[in-house]
Design goal:
Layout: H1 9-13, E1 20-27, E2 31-38, E3 45-46, E4 52-58, E5 60-65, E6 68-73, E7 77-80, E8 86-90, E9 95-102, E10 108-109, E11 120-123
Parallel strand pairs: 1-11
Antiparallel strand pairs: 1-2, 2-9, 3-10, 4-7, 4-9, 5-6, 5-8
Length: about 120
């Protein structure tokens, strides 16, 4: 029988370095909500298989895009459309974000050999 479970996002992220993403919600195994601490600038890239929604839980973030930059603070949300080149940058260390996207979003980097600074995705068990 299913039992409700509570997960505190700040406690989940506390022992992990920035750019460790956790899939906290799976919707029909096709869509996911990820949570992560951000640090510095993530390299320029785009997603070929879907849009990417960004919600700022804590801190400040700027996402540079082909269409121009957008700066987001606590409680702000934006969507980066599929195929749009972008590069997010944490303006406050350890900014916490929730990212809404397809699980098989795909990522195409402008510079495929660039260091992703420890980026990884994990499932919450």
């Amino acid at each position: 029988m299913w039992q409700p479970k509570k997960t505190n996002l700040l406690e989940l992220l506390a022992p992990h370095p920035p750019r460790t993403n956790f899939h906290v919600i799976a919707v029909d195994q096709e869509y996911t909500v990820r949570v992560a601490k951000t640090a510095g600038r993530f390299p320029w890239h785009f997603h070929p298989h879907g849009d990417e929604g960004w919600f700022i839980f804590e801190g400040r973030l700027r996402i540079d895009t082909e269409a121009g930059p957008i700066e987001l603070g606590r409680g702000d949300f934006t969507v980066i459309p599929r195929g749009t080149r972008h590069s997010p940058e944490a303006l406050v260390p350890n900014t916490v974000v929730l990212i809404f996207n397809r699980r098989q979003l795909g990522m195409v980097l402008d510079e495929p050999e660039v260091d992703l600074g420890g980026f990884q995705e994990n499932n919450v068990e």
